[in-house]
Amino acid sequence: MTIEVEYRFPPQIDPQKQANIIAIGQTAGTWDARFAHLEGKFKQHLGEVGKIITDPDGYSTATIYFPEINVENDLASLLTMIFGKYSMAGAGKIVGVQLPKNYGTKPKFGITGIREKLGVFHRPLIMAIFKPALGLSAADHGAILAEVAMAGLDIIKDDEILPDLDVAPTGDRLAVCRQVKAAVKAKTGRTVLYAVNVTGRADTLLAKARLLVEAGANALLLNVLTYGFSVLEALAADPVINVPIFAHPAFAGAMCAAPHTGLSYSVVLGTLMAHGGADAVLYPAHYGSLPFSPTEERKIRDILRSRNVFPVPSAGIHPGIVPQVLSDYGTEVILNAGTGIMEHPDGRGAGVKAFFEALETLEQGNSFELENLPPGALRRAREKWG
Amino acid sequence: MTIEVEYRFPPQIDPQKQANIIAIGQTAGTWDARFAHLEGKFKQHLGEVGKIITDPDGYSTATIYFPEINVENDLASLLTMIFGKYSMAGAGKIVGVQLPKNYGTKPKFGITGIREKLGVFHRPLIMAIFKPALGLSAADHGAILAEVAMAGLDIIKDDEILPDLDVAPTGDRLAVCRQVKAAVKAKTGRTVLYAVNVTGRADTLLAKARLLVEAGANALLLNVLTYGFSVLEALAADPVINVPIFAHPAFAGAMCAAPHTGLSYSVVLGTLMAHGGADAVLYPAHYGSLPFSPTEERKIRDILRSRNVFPVPSAGIHPGIVPQVLSDYGTEVILNAGTGIMEHPDGRGAGVKAFFEALETLEQGNSFELENLPPGALRRAREKWG
């Protein structure tokens, strides 16, 4: 099996020369006559240059095939091989990675598993983020969760910048929110997932994740790119972690935002996350203010779904954007709103209800125009956000 | 204590506006009147905008002060806070980070500890890399090590792209090389460090590192940026890992090479590595073909040394460059050569000897000009590499 990687070079770069440097330099490296007797052994490790296509704008894309035997079936050794030293060589961006089907780590739940946990099969899932990000106590978290969960919310997550702080320790947040989830279950029969932000040094993080799950966490949130893909894969492979893992894109811009270096967002947030064992992946939607390309967003969506991973577009999501999201995504999507729920003029519960009213309005084929909406949460949301 | 971060923006960006977005958006986030009674709690988490300096070329640098209470005294939560979501916001690059002195993880050895292990105190250390990178058996590694170690080498490391492969399992490489090290010790009294590449999912990597140390590894190599800073910190904090950790810069270009996004090389390979517990840090020197700025290189050197971390400039290092390196670095440096040792025309042993001849030539104040050099390894090296 081979690993196929596409590198894009700007016009001033000789793609053939760079492709040769990558195919040899990132595999066997240099060798000389002293190793002539070992030539067969080296050859099996060598990368191969595939097609090189130059666009009318002068940009070239070179495909390199890497032998799978050079790496350990994980993302870290893969990244070291395909972009380790070469990432420092100048202009050249990884814009596509094709991995063997079984490469990496499989999600334990993915789209189907998350839907089964929730018992919701035929509509987009509605997800909220605890806001403000820092400064709330565990009790504040519980109060917020009670409000949105009783209004019908499917999933809530910690803000990604909230780690395990003395002012609201992760274990305390979980303990309070677990009681709220239980109360909602008792009253409505519904399950609510709370993706707890799991943090720490790799060793403490892995241990803490187990403790959290044993203490009743029914989902985890991981800042995959600041903690490391190796941590995501460890969590995904751990049988004790029998809950879905939500992957957050924090720090993705550091490696994806540049035009001529780094990797495409669709490689990092699509391919790598999907082969790293994430069950759901958050990423900036082009609906919001972040400069995110709809093309990359579509690629991420399709790559994730092809591995049964839930796409979670996550910027600029408010009730008024639902028709657009449904048109772009259909129902196999998690609508993740921060302020779009938390800052609804009539409160967070109304923020959640506005999303469900939006889904119902569309399902029944009713008009979504503001002037045609009946009084209620959706109308109020549209008055605020459009 | 505060964490001080400098963000640089290109001319078309309003630095004041962006600084405010960072100071609020990456800390407490948005809040509203409902939380007025909690204002005091939020305020302690808020970032503060410091000075904003605009250069004559129109580039601006804004300093933001972040409260240390927002993070967990580790690098992953730090990166999530200072650049998580904001990394995806467009042009804006982190060019400086000042951390409280005790922030993060301290190296167990550093410059002084590595020198003590080797019993070498007053000259640059000489380090080699096993080459070719892939395709050698464990026995091949042993044969190479015997040659260079007997010639006086201080440190050798695996190539960073060599993980734990069936063709040369990490444990086998260590077992063979450990015997060679023991033989060298018995014959010459000298210690040679072999930085074994430690790889795997976070859980298996941490366990494997302990096994390797228990099996006699006297140094480790870690691709910090592909495995995660959280893994470096876990190794550095683990009392069982009582050997120096050599940090490799593989993948650094993905987050540092772009002019307007990501982070400076000196932040990632200097500040973050030094506060992550690395004992020695490899990085591309400007002597080689990689497009590396001498200014960034000097910053890395100074930041690392300020935390007792060994700088290991690592590209284009061959015996002929020694006068330049000594002038740039003095003696507190590890000279790390791959082909500059392995491809010496008279063999690897001569490659090592050429470095020592270079040091001696300079120490004795003799001429370094090719025509004045006596016959020997250095002269042969200079004939080949200049």
UniProtKB/TrEMBL annotation, chains A, B:
Keyword Magnesium: yes
Alphabetical GO biological process terms: carbon fixation
GO molecular function: magnesium ion binding; ribulose-bisphosphate carboxylase activity
Record's keyword annotation contains Iron: no
Matching InterPro entries: RuBisCO (IPR033966), RuBisCO_lsu_C (IPR000685), RuBisCO_lsu_C_sf (IPR036376), RuBisCO_lsu_N_sf (IPR036422)
Keywords: Magnesium
Range of residues in the leader sequence: none
Ribulose bisphosphate carboxylase large subunit C-terminal domain: residues covered: 110-271, 307-385
SUPFAM superfamilies, per database record: RuBisCo, C-terminal domain (SSF51649), RuBisCO, large subunit, small (N-terminal) domain (SSF54966)
Protein name: 2,3-diketo-5-methylthiopentyl-1-phosphate enolase
